Amino acid sequence: MSRSANRPAELPPPRIHPTAFIEEGVRIGRGSAVWDSVHIRRGAVIGERCIVGEKTYIAYDVVIGDLVKLNAFVYVCAGVTIEDMVMVSAGTVFTNDRFPRAADPALRTPLTSEPTADTLSTVVRQGTTIGANATIGPGIELGAFSMVGMGAVVTRSVLPLQLVFGCPARPAGWVCMCGAPLRPGRGRRVACVTCDRSYAMVSKRPVLPAV
Hints:
Layout: E1 15-16, E2 21-22, E3 27-28, E4 33-34, E5 39-40, E6 45-46, E7 51-52, E8 57-58, E9 63-64, E10 69-70, E11 75-76, E12 80-82, E13 87-88, E14 93-94, E15 103-104, E16 109-110, E17 122-124, E18 129-130, E19 135-136, E20 141-142, E21 147-148, E22 153-154, E23 162-165, E24 170-174, E25 182-184, E26 189-192, E27 198-202, E28 205-206
Parallel strand pairs: 1-4, 2-5, 3-6, 4-7, 5-8, 6-9, 7-10, 8-11, 9-12, 10-13, 12-17, 13-18, 14-19, 17-20, 18-21, 19-22, 21-23
Antiparallel strand pairs: 15-16, 23-24, 25-26, 26-27, 27-28
């Protein structure tokens, strides 16, 4: 797991609310905070200086990087990896099953909740923002510093720096690493409307600089 270049020399131990339920084998990095009624399943890994908001659920073996903000009522299912500096807003739901059913209709027995061949992995790359009440489909990748609008239903992968919203989510432009929109600049470049960053356009896409 990466560590930020400006990491303080000494970070305090993680703060965990007494009502949070942390199962065995969970690792939580220093400087992180876990708030009330959170449930983190076995084997999950959470990096340094993260915030896990109230009543959030994190499934077993989920990996979360550093400086991640999960707001309240976020559902992170098995098979999800969240890289550094990601913001997941309140009420966001991740999914991982292509063909979900509760029971086998022939045997009339419950189906397993463990991962199967139909369980797909999802990756949220660094710097991404996911708006409130978004739903993230299985087996997709949200590119670095992309932005998902509130209430969006994401069924396809999202490119780096791309803005998507709607149901289903569709491309709606490009955003800067700071989150503001990008507009045409000089030559084959686009520029941020807020900060001084600009990006070269290659194949009609802004090129993300090394970070």
